[in-house]
TrEMBL record:
One of its GO terms (molecular function) is oxygen carrier activity. It comes from Aquipseudomonas alcaligenes (strain ATCC 14909 / DSM 50342 / CCUG 1425 / JCM 20561 / NBRC 14159 / NCIMB 9945 / NCTC 10367 / 1577). The keyword NADP does not apply. Gene3D superfamilies: Globins. This is Globin domain-containing protein.
Length: 130
């Protein structure tokens, strides 16, 4: 199975787990005061729904979809708008992998490296917009 297919299936199992997005944001917000500050005014239930689609866009990009959705995210997260510094994506990725490992009952090392590969590809498009 391709890395993108492994991730798609793993993500399906995560989305079926009721607290996946709550646990992700708990871990991500706990990873740095800088990150917590960025979400101080955010409607978190709405943000969780937006991220559900955002992760899907990263996976679809790895499966060959155009980069236009990710370039739009690059623009919203850029210096002049949300101002998300590129190094913060490392914390995002660590929090996500930690959460996936706790929710995907079939999680193993090849699934972990598939997630890293698939997400890094799309994250570089977003970071390039900074
Ligand atoms: C908003 C996805 C990384 C902070 C959003 C939105 C999406 C999204 C879909 C809402 C739509 C938009 O504003 O364009 C993602 C994805 C990421 C990522 C897929 C990783 C690849 C980050 C990181 C931070 C961050 C590393 C660092 C703190 C924010 C903030 C908002 C936001 C502050 C606005 C929240 C609000 O409306 O108050 N993100 N994001 N994001 N993101 Fe991200």
């Amino acid at each position: 199975m391709s890395p993108a297919d492994l991730v798609m299936q793993s993500y399906g199992r995560c989305c079926a787990s009721p607290t996946f997005f709550d646990d992700f944001y708990r871990s991500f917000l706990d990873s740095s005061p800088q990150i917590r500050a960025k979400f101080a005014e955010t409607d978190m239930p709405a943000q969780k729904l937006l991220l559900r689609q955002g992760i899907l866009n990263l996976v679809m990009y790895a499966r060959g979809m155009s980069d236009s959705k990710l370039r739009a995210l690059g623009e919203s997260h850029s210096r002049g708008r949300l101002d998300i510094r590129p190094e913060l994506y490392d914390l995002w990725l660590d929090a996500l992998l930690l959460t996936v490992s706790g929710h995907d009952k079939q999680f193993n090392e090849s699934i972990r490296s598939a997630w890293r590969e698939v997400l890094n590809k799309g994250i570089s498009v977003i970071k390039a917009g900074y």
